[in-house]
Amino acid sequence: MPANRGYDDVGRSELTDTPRNPFASSKARFPGLSRFRPRREAVYGWLLLLPALVLLFAFTHYPGLITIWRSFFSTARGARPSKFIGLDNYVTLLEDDIFWQVLWNNFFYALGTIPTSIALAIVMALWVNRKLAGRGFLRLFYFAPTMLPLVAVANIWMFFYTPSFGFFDQLLGIFGLSGPNWLGDPDTALLSVIIVAIWKEAGFFMIFYLAALQAISPQLEEAAMLEGASRWYFFRRITFPLLMPTTLFVLVNAVINSFRLVDHIIVMTGGGPNNASALLLFYIFENAFRFWDTAYGATLTVVLLLLMALFGIGQFLLLDRKVHYQ
Length: 326
What we know:
By secondary structure, the protein is mostly helical. The protein folds into 2 domains: 1-45, no CATH class; 89-322, MetI-like fold (Orthogonal Bundle), CATH 1.10.3720. Helix content is 71%, strand content 0%. It has 16 helices and no strands. The protein has helices spanning 7-10, 12-16, 24-29, 33-70, 88-94, 97-128, 135-147, 150-161, 167-174, 189-215, 218-226, 231-242, 244-259, 263-269, 280-290, 294-319. Helix 6 (97-128) packs antiparallel against helix 13 and helix 15 packs antiparallel against helix 16. The longest helix is centred in the N-terminal third of the chain and has 38 residues, at 33-70. The protein is flat and about 80 Å long. The two termini are 58 Å apart.
């Protein structure tokens, strides 16, 4: 045994059974070190975020700001340069009857696709989440439309909608009926596009709901069954509230998808007949690239950005209080 050591030899940490702070002496000698460390960690954090911030600004914020700025100018034509015209483009937009028709078409399209595709996605997810024979094949069958390219989907459904010898007309012919000109009739053109969008999006949203269902503890259902709760009561009171975070995410994506559809319109209807199936993004594409009126296209894009921002903020304000986590 060594000789008895004094208090200075033992140290405060041995007497109090508390670990020594290895930085205590450093802090005593360098009192500014504790203030510098959080500052250095913040710099490291911003450096790690810098690549993502650069890409986000370069491909999202900068084009958005340029689009807003371009909406206050006229379109350059040949030797005539563009000039500042203030709010003239917005005045033209308010007086544009086609714009209001397209905007109404887009709201009708969103109203037809968003709730239907989300409801179908929940039903399909509940179905394939059960122990079924061939469950993996059924999941693949539901998800298959999502993997197909948009142009390929449009061409497939054009065959279904073809008058006289298309799939739907052949099916109606069995019962002695004849279908309308699905894509050539103003009353059915937009509805036909809505059906295609629902068919393609429901399987995509199903994957998110399926993942959310598998994250719910099975003990909750077992406890509910022991208490005599019905399946509908369990879904309404437990399952669906726990699916609200996924529903919020899916709803935001569904709203975005409803305002960015252009491929199906170009291939299937071309916006016709008489702009009956034209949507806002398709109208932007026509003005900016087909008619080469880039300034008016920028003005329409600003309207689209404002609508998306309002819908996004509204969804979070209305649904965030209803989001429940397990």
